[in-house]
Amino acid sequence: MSKPDFADYIYSYFMKYLPLQRGLSQNTISSYSRSLMLFFEYCKSEEGIPYEKLTLDRIDKHLIKNFLLWLEAKRNNCAASRNQRLSGLKSLFQYIQSESVIYTVLCRDIMSIPEKKTPTVPPKYLTAEEMEVMFSMPNIKTRHGRRDLVLLLLLYDTAARAGELVELKAGDVSFGKTPTVKLFGKGSKTRVVPISPKTADMLQKYIKESQITINQFLFQNRSHDKLTTVGVAYILKKYVEMGKQFHPDMFRMAISPHLLRSTKASHLIQGGANIYYIRDFLGHSSVVTTERYAKNNPEVVRNAISKASSDLTGDKEYYSDSEKSAMLKFLKSLQ
């Protein structure tokens, strides 16, 4: 029996490991697949190696590095996109290493390739005023308008990913004194998040009006099929465009469902919510991922400075040493 080669590992990686062992979403698997397809394209067009002849013996660290250079030079990928493709390949070779000691050196070499530094930019989010305008756009006199408003409220309230929102069923919602929604996130992880009484009330009326049973999806299209993530993006952009007509100075950024997730996180940060609570609320595996909503957030820094400066109008002419130390420590934590 011949030893497994690249094609064998690829098949088991995508068909078994990612969906069954790691429980990754189809979107994540598609992203990893795209990285590999681009690598195949590079090998064929630049190295003259068709994918059916690409064996592990023909792959090395030098080939992967040249592929990354090609992404930037020929495909005009930014550093973030280049890093994303590298991450996809590293995941594959990490899996190959776990399956066979024969390729340990090769896999370690590839996994040692560093990511490029990317510029840190302030998080993008909508203001409270922009959110109010958007929520006022759906025509709640119509059935579809009421559905769309519930969808927008739930998307913001739960900070759900679009993929998580479309998978929601009526049975995933718990009403009562503390209404909650159960979300099914990345890696088959579930989390229960609270929703506001207003959102819960409108959602309950929507479920009753639409006669949605406990095992039915909350949001469906006109064909009564489950709403897609593309459909969610369409609804969001539709009402943002309507809001722009009334307020041309608003919504000056690219709009996507993820922006509402970022908006909710930023609003929680600005409201003083604990970073660890926000981590669990968003379903992040590490607080480091969550911290990006606090770092370089101008509103957080402005509030910190304002709070630190609030005693200037009092009787004390200068800060005490302990006050200065506390302020500097807090501001440094935001860098």
Structure overview:
It is a single chain. This protein has 335 residues and is mainly α. It has three domains: 6-111, DNA polymerase, domain 1, CATH 1.10.150; 128-258, Intergrase catalytic core (hpI Integrase, Chain A), CATH 1.10.443; 298-333. Helices cover 57% and strands 4% of the residues. The chain contains 15 helices and three strands. The protein has helices at 6-21, 26-46, 61-73, 79-99, 104-111, 128-135, 143-158, 162-166, 197-210, 229-246, 257-270, 275-282, 287-291, 298-308, 321-333; strands spanning 173-174, 180-184, 190-194. A three-stranded antiparallel β-sheet has the order 1-2-3, with no helix packed on it. Strand 1 (173-174) and strand 2 form a beta hairpin. Helix 3 (61-73) runs antiparallel to helix 4 (79-99) and helix 7 packs antiparallel against helix 9. The longest helix is centred in the first third of the chain and has 21 residues, at 26-46. Mean pLDDT is 84; it is low at 304-318.
Q: Spell out the helices and strands N to C.
A: HHHHHHHHEEEHHHHHHH
Strand runs, count: 3
Structural class computed from helices and strand pairing: mainly alpha
**Main sheet summary:** 3 strands, antiparallel
Instruction: Please tell me the total number of domains.
Output: 3
- Assigned CATH architecture of the largest domain: Orthogonal Bundle
End-to-end CA span: 56 Å
Secondary structure topology:
Layout: H1 6-21, H2 26-46, H3 61-73, H4 79-99, H5 104-111, H6 128-135, H7 143-158, H8 162-166, E1 173-174, E2 180-184, E3 190-194, H9 197-210, H10 229-246, H11 257-270, H12 275-282, H13 287-291, H14 298-308, H15 321-333
Helix pairs in contact: 2-4, 3-4, 4-5, 6-10, 7-9, 7-11, 14-15
